[in-house]
Structure formats: C-alpha cells, structure tokens
Design a protein that fits this description.
Distance between the termini of chain A: 42 Å
Largest interface: A-B, 48 and 48 residues
Oligomer: homodimer
Order of helices and strands of chain A: HHHHHHHHHH
Shape of chain A: globular
Largest sheet of chain A: none
Chain lengths: 199, 199
DNA sequence: TCGATACCTTACCCGTTGGTAAGTCGAGAT
DNA sequence: ATCTCGACTTACCAACGGGTAAGGTATCGA
C-alpha cells in the first residue's frame, strides 16, 4: 500500500465522516493534504470509488479487530464480550468512524442499487457467527442472532455520534453523566444478549 | 400558513431526509413541485433557512404530539409510555422523519456554531419534564432524566433508519424477524426506565 | 541507455450550485 | 381607477462540482 494513498484515505475518511458524501469536494480533501484533486482521481478514479475505498478499509479494520490474535484464544462468550467492549472504547475516543458508519446507513438506501452489497455485511456476519457459537445461541436462527448483533453495534454507534449534541444540550456535566451511565449499561446489554434474555 | 409554503416544506423534508442537506439542491426540490427554485427563495430566503424551517416544523409537531389532548388526561407514567409507543409507531410507518433527525444529529456539530440551539431541545426537555413527574424519578437530576429520554428516542430512531439496510442484508424475512422482536423490546426498555432500573 | 510505468501537475471543460435583479400578474384596499 | 403587496417568473451570474486531456518527472527493469 502506497503511503499517499493511505494519507488520502485518512483525510477522506475524516471529511466524509464530518460532512457526508455530498458535503465534501475532492478539491477540499486534496487541499488538506497539499496535493491537487487530480492526485486523488489518479489513485481512485472517481469520487464514488474513493468513498467506497474508505468504506472497504473500515470494513477490513473491523474484521481484523475481530480476528485479532488476543481474541482467538478466548471462549466465544468472552470473545464476543471483549470485542464489543473494545468497540465501544474505540467509538468513545474517536467517533468519526461511527459518524461515517451511520451516514452510510442513511445513504445506503439510495446507493443500494449501485453497490452490490453493504460494506459492513462481512463484519456483521462474522460477529454473528461468533455469537452463534456461544452457549444458548446454537439453536437460534441466523436472523435472530444477526438482529442481536446489529442492535448492539448500533447502540454503540448511536452513543458515539451523540457526544456533540449531548454536550451542547446538557453541557459537559450532562455529557459526563451519560458517559458514566452508558458504559455499564452497555455491558448489561451484552450480558442480556449472551443470556438470551433480549431477542 | 400558506399552502405552497407547506408544500415546499413537505417536499424539502422528504428530500433532505433522503439525501441530506448537501445532497439536495433547491432546483431539485422546486422541480418536484413544478415551480422554480426562486419560489423557494422567495418564501425562505436561503437554503439554510429553508432547512431550518423544516426542522422547526418537525420540532413543533413533536411538541404538539406530546401535548395532544388524549395524553393530557393520563397519569405521567402512562403518558410517557403512550407517547413513546406512538412515536415508535410513527417511526415504523414512515422513517423519513427519523432519517432527517439522525442526519441533523450528525451535521449538528458543524452547524452548531451558527444555530443558537438544537432544534429538538424543547421537545426533549418537555419529555424529560414528563418523566421527572413520574413516580421514582422525582429525585433524579435533570441530566439523568434527560439521558434516559434521549436514549429511548434514539433507540426508536435507530431502529427506524435501519429498515432498508436490514431488509437488504437479511431479506424481508430477516427484517420481519427484527420487527417482531423490536417492539416488545422497546416496551421493556420503557418499563425499565420507568422503574428506574436503567440509568 | 532506453522504454515503460507509477505518480502527480497544469490547464481546461461544462453542468450545477446558491443567490441576485428585475420584472409579471392577480387580488384587495382606497 | 390606481396603488400596493404578496406570490411568483425569467434572466442572469460567479463560484464550484466532478471529470478529461495531456504533459512532466522519478524510478526501475532490461
């Protein structure tokens, strides 16, 4: 992987997360990198493909995180727990990825015709497979397990993208209050799913 | 309220929900109405103000729904329950409002500097006040109650905007599976909040 | 040394963008 | 009958959008 290529993806990811696909121009991204927009077009061909590459990279990073060495040695339950804990941690410290993810969720229904499949599919299905090897979930249908996974990942994302609004509405004090209450609540949600109480 | 004015707001709301602020052009909205874009500019001055007017109208509709006659006669607990149930019902049947709401949540951090306050503030605070009159919540801080309200409303929104993706990923069967499981789960969430188990 | 290839630039194109200026047109009031 | 005002329209604009064409330059294998 080229160095500039990754730098372009970094800048693009940040800006797409902040302003959405239509809110960002190629010239805008290029400017922050000190290159011309044709450098981007050289690497990615079109704006759509650049956007797709950003999503691809994120998808792969999610999959890599799930297949990370330190998780593979664990029991499925603990693997599931540990991964989602990490996920929430990453979302809290840097919400830009979640903003992009949710934007894509919104835009997907327009772009769905063009794209063959949703870019998060592989990751979500992999996590679903982990859940289905957990005790108490072997009998569940794929759809049930998928729903549970989707809702957990969604809860973390929604929490992450709410930070600026909650800070703006409740002040820092209000935001800290929700932060304190959300992490343990998320743990409860995970446990509820693992104990098959939720679906 | 003029008739065309409301028609413009209708079309704008739909399109902003579908493609976001930057994804929609004034000419685009005008075309669907069979007028020129200058008609929109005549009524609203700028694109930003048109967008703001759309949000204002939604905010007022939320407040009206909360202050509806049939809710006022109920006990606070049942009022809270009943309103959120209705909210989920409206979100399920027409998700466009929720898409706009979530988009605004994402864009808000950029627009926050310009807008004096978030457009959903009044509504969320009104609902928070209802919760605070419920048994078991009188002692809670404003922030705690607000967080609980925010998470409930957020859960309904996130569910609503997920429909196309879930249908795309799991097929109609998968989507129906989550639909069946979500409504009762949402009820449990409401009850958990009312019983002060959650925060 | 030569050619090819990857990487990037300058120059240019044209449709679209939000917005302005200046009218048109009909209804109501005086 | 005229004046006014709100609700539009046509005509226009400068800036910006993504994208193309063509050229320069460094690297590298033959």
């Amino acid at each position: 992987m080229s160095d500039t290529r990754n730098q372009i993806l970094d800048a693009a990811e940040q800006q797409f997360a902040d302003r959405g696909f239509y809110g960002v121009s190629l010239a805008n991204i290029a400017e922050t990198l000190g290159v011309t927009k044709q450098a981007l077009l050289h690497h990615f061909g079109t704006k759509e493909r650049l956007y797709g590459s950003v999503l691809d990279r994120i998808s792969k990073e999610f999959l890599n995180a799930l297949h990370a060495q330190h998780l593979q040695t664990l029991e499925p339950e603990e693997q599931f727990r540990s991964f989602l804990r990490d996920l929430l941690g990453r979302s809290s410290s840097d919400a830009s990825r979640d903003r992009l993810l949710v934007r894509e969720l919104l835009d997907n229904r327009e772009r769905a015709a063009e794209a063959d499949a949703w870019y998060m599919r592989d990751f979500l299905e992999a996590l679903t497979r982990v859940l289905k090897t957990c005790c108490g979930w072997q009998q569940a249908t794929d759809a049930e397990a998928f729903c549970a996974v989707y809702q957990l990942v969604g809860a973390a994302s929604y929490y992450a993208i709410s930070e600026p609004t909650l800070t703006g509405l409740g002040g820092e004090k209000g935001y800290r209050a929700i932060t304190r209450s959300f992490a343990p609540q998320f743990e409860l949600l995970i446990e509820a799913v693992l104990k098959q109480q939720a679906p």
